[in-house]
């Protein structure tokens, strides 16, 4: 929607004469879908296509040249078909030359299509170069790739070069052609691919790679020069409106064009301002990409598919459904299809977008009506999805209306409805200010309703347009949330978990993948059969001893927890807590789950939440201190050392001071940047403010550090626990016929547990196994025995304890400790 008001007062006093109905159009053959001077744009679909095809080419090239089992199966099937079809395969394969040449000739012969000719000429060398590179990596000579362009028989060559060039030319011209010609090109590619496999020109793997190479070449050209979106011309829109029976004048393109939808503005015969929305190819692709990304990023979202008419039909249906439910909307005037199947919606758009108005122009009544409208939408089960100031209208009489239902869904869940209200609060605050927006919201829907929406007041719930507008303000979502909490008198709530995918989660996934790759590579280097043989020959006595000793690790850990709190507590419930933590560590492998369990447990015995958090921090920090102390004592005293170079034990390990100083310098630079950037500086200030608020409750818990008896429990319990873990590691090693000193075992266990704790991998899965394997190899243990020992130790100390942790959780629930 544009930032311009068109009202009936601006229309001429004289009733405009409706344009006469268009005469039936003469039959003409259309080749191109867009005008020769149609604007071009670089589209997200091309970027996604380029990345996907390059990944596909890499996968095919790794498996090339074949033949794979799939190649053989497809080849045997197609060999039976040429006899049935005669020369059909040869004709189909020759069409890969004929049809692209026809497209090139059409681009040269047509007026104003020289840019398309340039694009097709450029796509040819790009696709050939990419095909030749893939072929060289797979062992195909460059001369064989050149010969394969004109060849129509064996031997098979990887990849299918003729198919790659034909695909590049057809896909490059595809956005310029009408729908019928696009379908013809698609079928020619399908038949040509089958023909190439049937004639033995290329195996199925080479055929797939050829198509991917061609698509990559076309996507590259489209990203360089852009491509037309198949947008209708002014004449075509006028003709479509005439066919719909909508007489208009002053038809023009809107200055603000959302991605995927073409917006036209005009005036109806009675002076009403009209907005014409055209859903074309851009709308379909844009919706697909946006909904796919949204479904990956946010919980509860699903990918929305459908034709252009289905998109327009959905928006029209939701608009009429909302209007019938008493929601003020912009009335729908007409709906229909255009020349090439593009869908049109004609809307009566009397009014101005909320985002285009000044603060003094907006009356509280309009915003109150918007809140009541969204309340009705919630009761109807409708979620708008995209709520910004350009989809909310204020009519000339001061009343409000909802004008955007492009992303709306019916039968929406509660989360989507509350997210709409959170977006409405932000959109109104951007226009009238925080205090006024919050005041109107509480006055209209009440404190309780607004309080329910506050957990959705976060970045993941906002439309990108709203988020970009918010970044230009001197306040953020945290400030708005605090003002809303103060107005409603509610306590701060945890934000709703809306995001599925964040940059942090992607980084964590990559890290887990790298660790898993390293672990399985190590296991693969040894061989699963070798590890299996190691376990078969393992000493059952030492294995049983390790399993028996494992439950006793939590005994001293419970003593350490008792030492971390001043409140008198019985030992048995704390021991059950430690066993319960073992269950949580595997069932819900996150620090938040463990903290929640500890807070709930200590709250049951009368400790405040802040004090419970402090107890856990003291316990964890004392464990860290004991581990560092053990490492320093063992290394300084020379009791043990690790040879990380792989040459065996006893040679010691030197500290790389240069890398250590570089790492410290990078940390310092990052800290300085965080202080200089306002966003990070404000986050740091809020963090410090939160610590100060919790300091009063946590300070009492710190008094344990002044009690010698508590310190003895705290440090002694963690020390004994570390020694027991080292003994279990030693028993696991003895089971495979090797031994190490207690100092060496303590050093390996401490290094590995510290390393796994620093890595952001839940439960240290994969990381810990790799770390223990590396530590044992540094002691001089063979790779196969070290890997087997690490797997056994992790099974005994991490994967097995949840078995008795289950009974501990049940006991705590029955005795009301949870």
Characterise this structure:
- By secondary structure, the protein is mainly α.
- It has 4 domains: 8-14 and 231-348, Phosphorylase Kinase, domain 1 (2-Layer Sandwich), CATH 3.30.200.20; 40-227, no CATH class; 363-488, Transferase(Phosphotransferase), domain 1, CATH 1.10.510; 527-650 and 699-814, no CATH class.
- The strands form 4 sheets. The chain has a 5-stranded antiparallel sheet with strand order 3-4-5-7-6, sandwiched between helices. Strands 8-10-11 form a 3-stranded antiparallel sheet, covered by helices on one side. Strands 1-2 form a two-stranded antiparallel sheet.
- Strand 6 and strand 7 (343-348) form a beta hairpin.
- Helix 26 (657-676) packs across helix 27 (678-701).
């Amino acid at each position: 929607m544009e930032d311009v008001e068109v009202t009936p007062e601006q229309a001429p006093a004289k009733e405009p004469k409706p344009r006469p109905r268009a005469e039936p159009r003469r039959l003409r053959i259309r080749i191109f879908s867009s005008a020769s001077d149609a604007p071009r744009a670089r589209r997200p679909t091309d970027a996604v296509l380029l990345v996907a095809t390059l990944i596909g080419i890499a996968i095919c090239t790794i498996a090339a040249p074949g033949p794979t089992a799939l190649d053989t199966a497809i080849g045997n099937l197609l060999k039976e078909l040429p006899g049935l079809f005669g020369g059909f395969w040869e004709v189909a394969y020759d069409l890969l030359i004929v049809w692209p040449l026809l497209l090139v000739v059409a681009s040269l012969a047509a007026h104003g299509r020289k840019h398309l000719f340039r694009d097709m000429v450029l796509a040819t060398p790009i696709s050939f170069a990419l095909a030749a590179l893939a072929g060289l990596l797979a062992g195909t000579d460059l001369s064989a790739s050149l010969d394969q362009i004109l060849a129509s028989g064996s031997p098979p060559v990887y990849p299918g070069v003729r198919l790659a060039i034909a695909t590049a030319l057809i896909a490059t011209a595809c956005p310029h052609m009408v729908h019928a010609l696009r379908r013809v090109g698609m079928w020619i590619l399908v038949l040509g691919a089958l023909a190439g496999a049937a004639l033995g020109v290329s195996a199925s793997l080479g055929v797939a790679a050829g198509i991917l190479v061609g698509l990559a070449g076309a996507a590259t050209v489209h990203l360089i020069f852009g491509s037309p979106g198949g947008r209708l011309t002014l004449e075509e829109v006028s003709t479509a409106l005439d066919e719909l029976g909508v007489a208009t004048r002053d038809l023009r393109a809107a200055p603000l064009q959302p991605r995927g939808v073409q917006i036209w503005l005009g005036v109806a015969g009675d002076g009403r301002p009209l907005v014409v929305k055209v859903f074309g190819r851009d709308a379909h692709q844009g919706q697909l990409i946006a909904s796919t990304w949204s479904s990956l990023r946010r919980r509860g979202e699903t990918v929305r598919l459908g034709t252009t008419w289905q998109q327009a039909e959905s928006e029209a249906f939701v608009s009429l459904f909302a209007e019938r439910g008493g929601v003020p909307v912009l009335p729908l005037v007409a709906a229909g299809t255009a020349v090439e199947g593009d869908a049109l919606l004609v809307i009566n758009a009397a009014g101005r977008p909320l985002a285009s108005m000044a603060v003094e122009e907006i009356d509280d009544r309009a915003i109150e009506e918007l809140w009541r409208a969204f309340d009705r939408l919630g009761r109807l089960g409708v979620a708008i999805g995209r709520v910004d100031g350009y989809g909310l209208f204020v009519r000339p009489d001061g009343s409000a209306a909802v004008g955007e239902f492009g992303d709306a869904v019916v039968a929406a869940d509660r989360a989507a409805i509350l997210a709409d209200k959170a977006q409405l609060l932000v959109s109104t605050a951007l226009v009238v200010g925080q205090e006024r927006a919050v005041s109107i919201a509480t006055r209209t829907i009440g404190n309780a309703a607004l309080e329910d929406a506050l957990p959705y007041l976060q970045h993941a719930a906002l439309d990108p347009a709203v988020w970009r507008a918010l970044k230009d303000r001197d306040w953020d979502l945290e400030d708005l949330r605090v003002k809303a909490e103060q107005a409603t008198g509610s306590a701060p709530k945890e934000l709703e978990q809306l995001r599925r995918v964040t940059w942090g989660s992607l980084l964590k996934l990559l890290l887990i993948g790298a660790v898993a790759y390293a672990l399985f590579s190590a296991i693969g280097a040894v061989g699963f059969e070798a590890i299996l043989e190691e376990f078969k020959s393992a000493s059952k006595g030492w294995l049983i001893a390790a399993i028996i000793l494992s439950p006793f690790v939590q005994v001293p850990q419970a003593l350490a927890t008792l030492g971390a709190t001043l409140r008198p507590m019985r030992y048995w419930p704390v021991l059950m807590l430690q066993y319960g933590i073992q269950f949580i560590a595997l069932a819900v492998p996150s620090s938040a789950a463990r903290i929640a369990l500890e807070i709930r447990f200590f709250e049951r015995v009368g400790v405040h939440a802040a004090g419970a958090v402090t107890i856990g921090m003291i316990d964890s920090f004392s464990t860290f201190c004991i581990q560092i102390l053990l490492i320093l004592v063992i290394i300084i005293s020379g009791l043990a050392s690790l040879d990380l170079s792989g040459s065996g034990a006893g040679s010691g390990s030197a500290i790389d001071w240069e890398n250590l100083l570089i790492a410290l310098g990078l940390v310092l630079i990052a800290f300085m940047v965080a202080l200089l950037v306002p966003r990070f500086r404000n986050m740091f200030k809020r963090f410090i403010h939160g610590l100060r608020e919790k300091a009063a409750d946590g300070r009492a818990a710190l008094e344990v550090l002044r009690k010698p008896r508590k310190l003895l429990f705290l440090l002694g319990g963690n020390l004994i626990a570390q020694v027991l873990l080292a003994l279990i590691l030693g028993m696991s090693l003895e089971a495979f016929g090797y031994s190490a000193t207690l100092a060496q075992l303590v050093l390996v266990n401490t290094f590995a547990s510290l390393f796994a704790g620093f890595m952001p991998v839940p439960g240290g899965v994969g990381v810990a196994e790799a770390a223990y394997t590396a530590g044992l190899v540094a002691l001089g243990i063979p790779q196969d025995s070290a890997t087997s020992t690490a797997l056994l130790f992790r099974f005994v100390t991490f994967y097995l304890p949840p078995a008795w942790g289950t009974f501990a959780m049940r006991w705590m629930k029955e005795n009301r400790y949870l």
